[in-house]
Predict the 3D structure of the following.
Amino acid sequence: MTQPGPNLREDTRRCSPAVGITVTPEGKAWAAATLAAADAERSPERRVALRARLNLPLADAA
Amino acid sequence: MSEPVDESRPIRLVFDTSAIIAFTRGSIHVGELLAEIDDEHAAVALPLPACMVDAVPAWQTSTDSELLVAHRATAVKTDEPGLWQALAATCEIVGRADAAAAALAAIDLNVDVLTRTPLIYTGLDAGGLVIAIEE
């Protein structure tokens, strides 16, 4: 009889260990800092220029 | 785009093919970012071409894919038909359809691409578009 898999919609913390990833508080802190740094680096002007270069409608901008 | 179960979650990051594969191979940094985004009550976008087409051969088991696709903090994103010209223009720059889909999704959602292959994207924004996965 097979064990039921983790219901990831209910308990997402069981997902990473299932593929061999153990998330630590230090790792979470690193991730938060990484996301914050990416946010800080993102330039609205550069994104507008990039959208224009790709002919991506500005109305879709977030 | 398929929405996370909780549709109030904003998309915070896009995983490209390399990031999806890295997750299924146990990349600690990918797992940490996904956990943090989940805790922020946000979600990761998984572009359909990258997720379903290019990453599948690298998945070690079908369970790996199910774990990521079924995660409450992920949403599979399809290409918008109306943006095909932008997708083609992006593909011309990055050289790969899957990377183009990831990049265009990130630009459209005003977020970044998580990747193990940041050099692919340098033609778009001098690297400012990506978060590179460290070894």
Observations:
- The domain at 11-132 of chain B is CATH 3.40.50.1010 (Rossmann fold).
- Chain B touches chain A through 47 residues (CB under 8 Å).
